[in-house]
Amino acid sequence: TPKGTCLESVKIAIDTGYRHIDGAFVYYNEHEVGQAIREKIAEGRIKREDIFYCGKLWNTCHPPELVRPTLEKTLKILQLDYVDLYIIELPMAFKPGDAIYPRDENGKFIYHETDLCATWEAMEACKDAGLAKSIGVSNFNRRQLEMILNKPGLKHKPVSNQVECHPYFTQPKLLEFCRQHDIVIVGYSPLGTSRDETWVNVSSPPLLKDPVLNAIGKKYNKTAAQVALRFSIQRGVVVIPKSFNPQRIRENFQIFDFSLTEEEMKEIEALNKNVRYVELLM
Ligand code: A2P
C-alpha cells in the first residue's frame, strides 16, 4: 500500500461510521491504522472504546512464549493499550524468526510443529492480562475449533472465527456449527477479493458481476457490492470489506437502509459455488 493510503482510508472510514477495523501485523500498515484511530480520538470524534480493533497472531509466532511479546509488539506499533480482539490468523505454524514466509533452499515453506492448544492457552493469558478484550481464531475448520473447545481446562473459548464468506462461498456447515457454539463468523473477502492473481484463485468468476446480485441491487437502487454485504450481515455474518477508495468506503456503509426478502436471501444463498477465492495453498 502506498504510504499514507491506509491512514487516510481509516480516517475516512471512521468519519463515515465504521467502528470495526480488521488489521494484522503482516499487513504492514498497523502503524497507520493506529495513527488514524489516535488522531480521531484526539479530534474528539470517537473514544477508544467506540473502536473495535482486531489484530492477528502470525504463523511464525505460534510457540506459546512468543504470543504475548508478539501482541505487545502490535500494541507498540498501534500505540494503543489493548486490542479488542486478537486472533490466531491461521491454524498452522511456520518456523519462528524474522522471515514471515520462511522457505528452504528449494523454496518450500518451513513449517513448525506447535500445539494449537498451547498457543491458545497463551492467547487466554493475553486476555487475562487485559492486552486483548477478546480472543478468537481465523481459518479454522470444525475439527480445529473442536480441538480448542474440547481442550481440558479451557478458560476462554474463541469468540469468533474469521473465514472466507460471501455469496459464492457461503460456508453453511461451518456457520451452523459456529452458531451452535456462539462463535461469530467474521467473513473475509465479502466482496470477492481484489482478484490479485498472486494470491487469489481467479478461476472462480468475479462475484460483483453476478447477474442475481446486480438484478436485486437494481430493485433497491443498490450496487452488487451493497447487496453482497447486506446478504452477509442479514444472515449474521460480520463483514470486513476492504477499500482504499473514499467513494467505495462510503458505498459499503450504505447497507442499513434496506433489507432483503426471505426469497432474495434464498436466491443469493443458492449462488454458493463452494469454491474459495483464497485457497491458502501454503
Ligand atoms: P478498492 O480498494 O479500489 O475499492 P474484499 O473486501 O472482498 O477483499 O474486496 C476488496 C476489493 O474490492 C478491492 O479490490 C476493492 O478495491 C474492491 N471494492 C471495494 N468496495 C467495492 C465496491 N463497493 N464496488 C466495487 N469494488 C469494490
Automatic annotation (TrEMBL):
Signal peptide: none annotated. It holds the Pfam family Aldo_ket_red. SUPFAM superfamilies: NAD(P)-linked oxidoreductase. It comes from Anseranas semipalmata (Magpie goose). The record marks K56 as: Lowers pKa of active site Tyr. This is AK1D1 dehydrogenase. It comes from the Eukaryota. Belongs to the aldo/keto reductase family. Substrate binds at H112. One of its GO terms (biological process) is bile acid biosynthetic process. One of its GO terms (molecular function) is Delta4-3-oxosteroid 5beta-reductase activity. The active site is at Y27. InterPro entries: AKR, AKR1D1, Aldo/ket_reductase_CS, NAD(P)_OxRdtase_dom_sf, NADP_OxRdtase_dom. The gene is Akr1d1. Residues 7-272 form the NADP-dependent oxidoreductase domain.
